Amino acid sequence: MMVQMTCPCCFAEFPVEAGLVEADGKRLAAALGVMDADLVRVLFGYLRLHKPAQRALAQHKALTLAVEIGDLVASGEVRRNGVSRPASLAVWAQAIEQMLEGRSSLRLPLKGHGYLLEVVFGLADRADAENEREREQRVREGRRPDAVAQPKPKTSDAQARREALENELYDIAHRLRFEQISEQDAQRLRAEAPKKHGF
C-alpha cells in the first residue's frame, strides 16, 4: 500500500513516491534533506514566489533555485556591488520571511535572487553597523573591543560545530549530485561527519 500525502497548497492527495519519480525530484529532496530546518521552512514559500502564474514551478527550476540558495547561505556572507557583509542562516531566513510577508508588493514571479540579496544585504548591513557601534562604545568605555555581548563559549562552540556539520553534509550532497563521489562514498562520509564535528 502506498503512503498518501496531501499537498499543503491544493490539498490534493498523492502517493509520496510520485513526488520522487523524476531525477530532479530526488535531487531536490536530497538537497533539502541537508539544509537547516529553519531554512527549509521558509524556502518552500520562497520557491512559490518564482512560480509562473498559469502553471506549476518545474522541478528542475525548484532544484536549481534551492541549490543556489543553499550555496548562498553556506557562504556565510552576502555580497552586493563589490561589498560583502557577514550573513548568518538566521539573516537569510529573516529576509525570506520579510519577502513572504510583503508578497503583495512584489512583482511576481521573481526572475532570480536579486531582490532577496538586497533584503539580506540590508539586514546584514544594519547588524554589522550595530556591532561596530557596540565595539566603539566598548573602546570609549575602556573595555576590550571584543569583550562583550558574546554568547557563552560552550553555546557558541556548539553552534559553530553544528554549522560546520551542516555545511559538510550539504557539500557531500552537492558532490554526489554532480557525480563527484559515489553513493557508497556519500553514505560513508555522511556517517563519519557527526563524529568528526563532535556529535
Structure description:
This protein is mainly alpha-helical and 199 residues long. It has 7 helices and 4 strands. The protein has helices spanning 23-33, 37-48, 59-74, 89-101, 114-140, 153-177, 183-196; strands at residues 4-6, 13-15, 77-80, 83-86. Strands 1-2 form a two-stranded antiparallel sheet. It is flat. It starts with a strand and ends with a helix. Mean pLDDT is 80; it is low at 147-155.
What is the count of β-strands?
Answer: 4
Helix content: 55-70%
β-sheet strand percentage = 5-15%
The oligomeric state of the chains shown is single chain
- The SS-based structural class is mainly alpha
The largest pleated sheet is described as: 2 strands, antiparallel
Report low-confidence residues grouped into runs of 5 or more. Answer: 147-155
Order of helices and strands: EEHHHEEHHHH
Distance, first to last CA: 37 Å
Anisotropy-based shape: flat
Provide the spatial order of strands within the biggest beta sheet.
1-2
As a whole number of angstroms, the C-alpha radius of gyration is 20 Å
Task: Name the average pLDDT.
Answer: 80
Give the count of helical stretches: 7
Notable features of this structure?
two-stranded antiparallel ribbon, 199 residues, 7 helices, flat
Write the layout of secondary structure elements.
Elements: E1 4-6, E2 13-15, H1 23-33, H2 37-48, H3 59-74, E3 77-80, E4 83-86, H4 89-101, H5 114-140, H6 153-177, H7 183-196
Antiparallel strand pairs: 1-2, 3-4
Helix pairs in contact: 1-3, 2-4, 4-5, 6-7
